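ESCALATION

Customer reports they have been waiting on this structure for their group meeting. Please prioritize. Original submission:
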Amino acid sequence: MATEEKKKENQLRLMGMTMRGVALGIWDIVGETAVALGPRIGEQTLAVMEKEMGLEVAGETPEDILTEIGRLFTDEFGFCSAVKVEPGKDSITMTVENCKMATLTGKLIDDGVDPFICPYRNTGVAALKRAGKNARATVKFDPSKGSVITFEMV
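Update from on-call: job pushed to the front of the queue and completed.
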């Protein structure tokens, strides 16, 4: 019988396999249109962060919003080891270290599928929209850095 730690690893692995199957199936049916699901997915996480974890987006800068979202994913969800937010001229980059979904993200990209289920991207887009900012986000995976999400302000 597996140890409790191994069971947790296997649970996460099974959820990842399930999510990959769902993402691939949706992509097969609707193609790139699947990206439109992202903000709705992000709204679910955003609601939890606001109601249960004290996230406030009103009146905050986009960098501060994304920084706080990164902190919550790290400290409250334990979903990564660190999130680094770097503002650019017309964009903000969020680098996620040791994301629990990194393997899934990399596999989806390898499959030719946009990782439209990325919680960082989706929560960030939903939070920025709530704050009155429109952003387009892309996700790349760099094995040495982790997931790199770029929010282009539009």
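Sent to customer with the following note: The longest helix spans residues 4-30.
Escalation resolved.
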